[in-house]
Amino acid sequence: MNGALLAQTLVDGLILGGIYALSAVGFSLIFGVLGVVNLAHGVFVLLGAYVGLMVKNAFGIDPLMAIPIAFAILFIFGAFFQLWVVSTAIRRGSLISSLLVTFGASLILKDIIIVFIGPDIHTLDSAWVLGTHNVGGIVIDGARATALLASLLLLGLLALVLYKTAMGRAIRATAQQSFAAGLCGINCRRIYALTFGVSAGFAAASGVIVGIINPFSPSDDAFWTLNAFVTVVLGGIGSPLGALLGGLLLGEISTLSSQYVGATFPNIFMVCTLLLMLLVRPNGIMGNAYKGSV
Q1: Around Cβ 290, how many Cβ atoms within 10 Å?
Q2: Which of 23, 119, 282, 286 supports an S-S bond with 206, CB 3.0-4.6 Å?
Q3: 155, 160, 80: which is closest to 169 by C-alpha?
Q4: How confident is the prediction along the chain (294 residues), in pLDDT tens digits per residue?
Q5: Contacts for 246 with CB less than 8 Å, ≥ 6 apart
Q6: CB-based contacts of 293: which residues, under 8 Å, 6+ apart?
């Protein structure tokens, strides 16, 4: 086996895994706190990319600088979507109803993108990307390295919010025991909306980063939803660190299988790994982040 090729593949997998982790952390947070599998997650990722595209075309703002804008727009949309749609579906039906609602929302939002922007493939160009470097024979692509650094920064910011702020403690308390949290004065309904908004915002932020390194189109939503689901199963529920570990593992599986087996086989290995994890450790590498104490 070529050692240089293996090293290059492993580095590429780490970079890809960091991006997968950011794209999945919002999905993980919603699942951990609300118990909802958000099938619109992939569309939220794409909406972030399209916000970056529209802001750049309309105002000339660099996509990386547009991340806060994309976050804010999807945060507001996600919070109101949870308050008006998801919570209503759960209250009048069950958690299963949320699957149908989020799936329907994904179809509607995808069609809206196609109607107003079109089905064409787009990319985002940023003037802030790092240069490409060759380190010991390993080529580190500047755009992907920039995406990885941005992903790690945002994951660290989310971890800081969850574990070092009053809002984060309220979110974790609500996830562990909503009834007890309510007795302590926490407005669980507001926390659910806030969590959904934060999750949608991080999905949008990841969408901008994804758009810088990969072409994107409305048909990509299922790919990002599936990746998020697999990442959460591998890493664990509700934890930024779990999302990071799951994303890194998924990135390595993807690059190694593509390089040494074939470009059409990553999904097979991904599903096999998913099934193995469900059999061996159903709660993922880090387990459920909200089973411990606040």
Answers
A1: 18
A2: 23
A3: 160
A4: 578 889 999 999 999 999 999 999 999 999 989 989 999 999 999 999 999 999 999 999 999 999 999 999 999 999 999 999 999 998 887 778 889 999 999 999 999 999 999 999 999 999 888 888 888 889 999 999 999 999 999 999 999 999 999 999 999 999 988 889 998 999 999 999 999 999 999 999 999 999 999 999 999 999 999 999 999 989 988 889 999 999 999 999 999 999 999 888 888 898 899 899 989 888 888 888 776 433
A5: 20, 21, 24, 230, 231, 232, 233, 234, 235, 236, 284, 285
A6: none
What does the block give as tokens for 20?
């997968």
